[in-house]
C-alpha cells in the first residue's frame, strides 16, 4: 500500500460522512496517474502554491491601494487568513482539509490590481463584462503553465468558482468544503478590513454598529471566534437534520451581513477612499486602452490569445494578471515623460 493510499484510508475513517474523500473525486479534465505520496487534492494545493498567479497575490491590493504600513492585508495575506479560518471550520465539521486548503489558496487568483476598483473597470470596459471568480477559473485552466492550465480537480475548480457572493443562496459549491471557503472568505475580509480601516484612521471603534458588535464581539479576534464556532455548530446541526449545507445561525449571519453592508457603505464604496479609487481606475483604464491600440507590444503569449480569442480577451488577460506595482510601472513607462538630456 502506497503512502497516498494510507492517507486515503485515514480520510475514510476520520471524516464526516458528508465530507469529500479524495478517492471519490470527480477527477480532472485530463486523466492522470495518481501520485505516490499525495492525494488528488494535495496535488491541487501544491500546484496552486507553486503557480505564478499565486505568487503575484503578494503585490495585489486587498482594500488599501499602495499602503505604506507593513501590517495592512494584501491578497496573499487575506488568502492565508481565509485558509486558516476555513481549515478550522472544516476540521470542526469533519471535512477534507486538503480540499479546503486548495480551494482557499486559489480562491482569489483571478483578482485584478487595485482591489475591487480593477474588477469594476474591466467589467465596464469588456463587452462581456468581468467577474474575478470566473477569471480565476480561466487563469487556472487556460493561462497558467504557458496556456496548458494546472489540470485541477472539478471539486477545487467548483469551490473557487462559487466562493464569491453572499446573497444568492442557490449559487454555492457542490461540496461542503467549497461552501466552507465561501463563508470563511466573508468572515476573514469583513473582520480584517475593519481592523485595517481602524489602523488607517478611516474608521473608529465607536463608529461600528453596536447592534452587530454586541452579537459578534468587540474586537476582530472575538468576532472571528464567534463566527467560526457558530458555523461549525450550525452546520453540524444541519447535517443531523438531513440538511447538507454549510450555514450560520440566523442572528449571527444577520449580524455579519450587517457589518458587511456597513463596510461597503463606509469603506469599500465610501467617500474617504474615493480619490484614491478614482486614481487607480484612471491608471488601469489608460493601460487597458494603450494595449488596445498597441497590441503588438503585448507579450507573445498574450498576442497568441488575441489571435485565437480576440483583442479584448488578450488585453484583459494581460491586465488582469498584473500586480499593483507592475500596473503602475507599465503606466509610468507608457505615459510618463522620461528625463532626456540633449
UniProtKB/TrEMBL annotation:
CDD domains to which the protein is assigned, alphabetical: HDc
GO molecular function, one term: triphosphoric monoester hydrolase activity
Span of domain HD: 75-190
Pfam families named among the record's database cross-references: HD, HD_assoc
Keyword Hydrolase applies: yes
PANTHER family per the UniProt record, alphabetical: BIS(5'-NUCLEOSYL)-TETRAPHOSPHATASE, SYMMETRICAL, SLR1885 PROTEIN
Listed name of the protein: Deoxyguanosinetriphosphate triphosphohydrolase, putative
